[in-house]
Design brief:
- It is a single chain.
- This protein is α/β, with parallel strands linked by helices.
- The protein has a single domain, classed as Rossmann fold (3-Layer(aba) Sandwich).
- It is 43% helix and 17% strand.
- It is built from eight helices and nine strands.
- It has a seven-stranded parallel sheet, with helices on both faces.
- Strand 7, helix 6 and strand 8 form a beta-alpha-beta unit.
- Helix 1 packs across helix 7, helix 3 packs parallel to helix 4 and helix 4 runs parallel beside helix 5.
- The chain is globular and about 50 Å long.
- The protein starts with 9 loop residues before the first strand and ends in a 6-residue tail after the last helix.
Length: 256
Amino acid sequence: MGSTNFLGKTAIVTGAGQGIGFEICRQLALRGARVILNDIDNKLAESAAASITKEGGRCTAIAGDSADLQVIQLMVQEAVAQSGRLNIVIANAGITLFGDFLSYTPESFYKVLQVNLGGSFFLAQQAALHMMQSPEGGSILFMSSVTGHQAHKNLAAYGMTKAALEMLAKNLVIELSPYKINLNCIAPGATLTERTLDDPGYEKTWSTITPLGRPATTLDIAEAALFLVSPQASHITGQTLVIDGGWTSVSPSPYE
C-alpha cells in the first residue's frame, strides 16, 4: 500500500491509546491522513498522539468515553473543523469483561453492551450523518473478533457483541450504500499487544495453536484495517475479514 494512499483524508479511531488502535492511527497518519485519536485515558491519548506527531504524522488526541454521545459528537465536529471533511471512521474501542455465564452480573453485561455496541452504533450514526452530505461518501469499520465466530470460555457477552457488530455492518449496507458509505468489519484473533504481553504464556500458547505459528502483530491487524478503508476497497461493503493466522479453521482452545 503506497505511502500517499490517505493524503487529504481525515479519520477518527476510538480506543487508540495503545495496541491495535494505536497502530491503526499511526499507519493512517504516516500515510498522509489527518487522524483524531480517542482513548478514555487522557494521558494515554495525549502521549499516543504526541508519539505519532513526533514521527511526522498529523494526529490530535480527544480523550473521553467512546460510548458517550457527547464525546462522539465532539470527535466528529473536531474532524470537520480541522479539514472540512470526515472520510474514515474506525470504531476500535471495546472492553473485555471475562466471566462465567451462570454468575455474570448485569453491571458487566450492560457495560460490555454499552461500549462495544452502543459506542460503535452511535459513532457510525454520527459519522454517517456527515458523510452522507459529501459526494465522495466515506468508510466505516467496526472491530469484531474471532470470538464472534467461535465460542470462547467466559466470553459469552463479549462474543455476542462482536457477532452483533458484524450484523450491524450488513444491515447498514441497506441504509448507507445510497450515500457511497461502505461498512465492514475486521475480526482479529490472538494479537500481541501491551495487554496480552503481560501474560507470560500468551505468545507461546497461541504460537502453538495457531496454524501459521504465531499470534498477530498490531501491524498485521492495522494493514488489514487500512485496506478496508482505502480506495482499493471502495466496492467492498457488509463484509468481515478474519485475521487469525488460520485459528478459526481449526479452533483449538488455549485452555487445554
